Inverse folding.
């Protein structure tokens, strides 16, 4: 399996050219919040029992046929046998270190904030290092199954291992979908790293948004498919249509269906990192 330390082409910036109007706040019925502490854990591969990592679904159904996002929690020192999957997946390391590669490859430990992809049918192993290692996994179709290497097959997809130190961050203040009020002031700007998909209107895509320490503002979305996972937190969060402030630790999830304003605040001394999967319009507004 080939490694790629990829540079996200600056030309992606040109696709963010549409002016967005102020969006309404939305209602509680259009939104969902799952705290990391509320995730229900089961064995990822029931056939292996406690030898398998734990998994906790955030949205969708990994045993069904639809797109799904779930948390993966392997034990410290976990190393899978060589295997394949029937579907491709994307992964983002939330905590600890993950290695995912060809069985004969040297360990490439990906830390928090790193991104990798695993093509369906390709033989690989997955390993973990760290007492509280976990990651976010995303598939576009299910079910998510583990098969023997005897069932391996080839596709045109290419695997990717992108260490967080090689992530290309773009200054979001140069993008029309980032709005900063004249009274707001931060030592660092909001930044974005494009990971996959098309950034055209109504096209599905995934990105990482880095909020500076002390950030206070909101993500405004009118997408019918807006999903966000906290990669590095904690983040203070006010759910649309409510007055209840919640603390979203790493691994927490929030989503909306239709027009919504997600109010967020980062710690004064720590940056926050959020993975966003969306179609349609959304923008970050700084108070």
């Amino acid at each position: 399996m080939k490694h790629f330390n990829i540079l996200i082409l600056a030309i992606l910036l040109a696709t963010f050219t549409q002016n967005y109007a102020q969006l309404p706040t939305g209602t509680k019925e259009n939104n969902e919040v799952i705290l990391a502490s509320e995730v229900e854990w089961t064995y990822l591969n029931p056939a292996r029992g406690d030898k398998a990592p734990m998994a906790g679904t955030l949205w969708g159904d990994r045993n069904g046929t639809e797109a799904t996002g779930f948390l993966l929690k392997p034990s410290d020192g976990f190393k899978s046998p060589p295997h394949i999957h029937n579907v491709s997946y994307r992964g983002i390391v939330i905590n600890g270190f993950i290695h995912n590669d060809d069985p004969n490859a040297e360990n490439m430990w990906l830390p928090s904030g790193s991104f990798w992809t695993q093509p369906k049918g390709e033989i690989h192993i997955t390993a973990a290092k760290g007492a509280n290692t976990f990651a976010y996994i995303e598939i576009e179709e299910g079910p998510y199954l583990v098969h023997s290497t005897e069932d391996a097959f080839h596709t045109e997809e290419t695997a990717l291992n992108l260490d967080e130190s090689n992530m290309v961050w773009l200054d979001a203040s140069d993008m029309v979908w980032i709005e900063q009020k004249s009274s707001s002031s931060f030592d660092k700007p909001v930044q974005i790293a494009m990971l996959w998909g098309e950034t055209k209107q109504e096209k599905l895509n995934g990105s990482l948004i880095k909020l500076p320490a002390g950030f206070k503002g909101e993500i405004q979305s009118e997408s019918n498919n807006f999903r966000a996972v906290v990669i590095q937190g904690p983040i203070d969060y006010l759910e649309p249509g409510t007055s209840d402030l919640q603390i979203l630790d790493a691994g927490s999830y929030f989503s909306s269906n239709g027009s919504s304003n997600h109010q967020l605040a980062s710690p004064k001394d720590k940056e926050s990192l959020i993975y966003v999967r969306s179609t349609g319009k959304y923008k970050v507004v700084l108070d």
About this structure: The chain has no helices and 22 strands. The longest strand covers residues 125-139. The chain has a mean pLDDT of 85. The two ends are 45 Å apart (CA to CA).
